[in-house]
Amino acid sequence: MQTRIGILGMGGVGGYFGGLLAKAYANSDSIEIMFIARGETQKIIAKNGLKITTDEEETIVFPTVVSSDPAVIGKLDFLICATKTYDIEESLLSIKKCITKNTVLLPLYNGVDAQERISALFPDNEVVQGCVYIVSMIVSPGVIRKVGPFEKLFFGSATAPIAALNKLQSIFENAKMESYLVENIEETVWEKFIFISALASATSYLNQNIGEILESQSSRSVYVALLNEITMIAAVKGLNLPHDIIMQTILKLEKTPHDATSSMHRDLMAGRKMELASLTEFVVNEGAKYEIETPTYQMVLDKLSSVSTS
Hints:
Catalyzes the NADPH-dependent reduction of ketopantoate into pantoic acid. With about 300 residues, this protein is of the alpha/beta class. The chain has helices spanning about 10-25, 40-50, 70-75, 90-95, 115-120, 160-175, 185-205, 210-215, 215-235, 245-255, 265-270, 275-290, 295-310, and strands at about 5-10, 30-35, 50-55, 60, 65, 75-80, 100-105, 125, 130-140, 145-155, 180. It folds into 2 domains: about 5-185, NAD(P)-binding Rossmann-like Domain (Rossmann fold, 3-Layer(aba) Sandwich); about 185-310, N-(1-d-carboxylethyl)-l-norvaline Dehydrogenase, domain 2. The protein contains 13 helices and 11 strands. The strands form 2 sheets. The chain has a 6-stranded parallel sheet with strand order 5-2-1-6-7-8. Strands 3, 4, 9, 10 and 11 form a 5-stranded mixed sheet that branches. The mean pLDDT is about 95.
């Protein structure tokens, strides 16, 4: 029996980790890797392969299949979802014929509401929680650039069969992916969300990269205020996060390449649609729900809402 794994979204996350899987299982009789892509990206990968560049090397990989047609993709055992958060519903519904009742879905989005949103579409399926730490981006269709050493993937589930989770972890490990099957996955996902939400909001609001924020006292103050607000919400929600989560998050940021920025900031600078709803507005709404004041997040949301609609 072949294990068929679909990668939905060929951006920085899906392209990089999907590329590692395609490289590892290029000649496998037991595992097939399907890139779900359309338009120019699909054409280029089908013809030239997916190119991944890192600080050390350049690799070109070919998946088993690259297509957006459910009839070509076929039924999937695992589906790794890595589109932008605003595309969750549309992208999944476009390939719903590939998703059987046994398909296990692993979302690797920036937000924390993906599991709930996907389960609303596919209530009978196991939707595993997951998150990644990586600085990677699309250079051009079919070309992914990864910066720095970070490439950790975390996943887990309280309900999925342990055999399915162990199988996925084994597939990841054999592909030389730095992946961790963790028990307290909700806390892990929220730790990442605290990191990425504050970073995306700060870089986009201030129009600065990581190094510029760390070097400016006023910029750093905005970033820390965002961290204070989002960690307060996590605490009120009852999440068991480290007591020094703010300091840990700042240290994580200091280890990130200083010339890097968030994907939301890159989208803003390029005039593209942003993940503002999942990364900034979600925190404001959660604050209202739990009666926690979020003035800094509100300030960011007000400014970026006017930019994204103008």
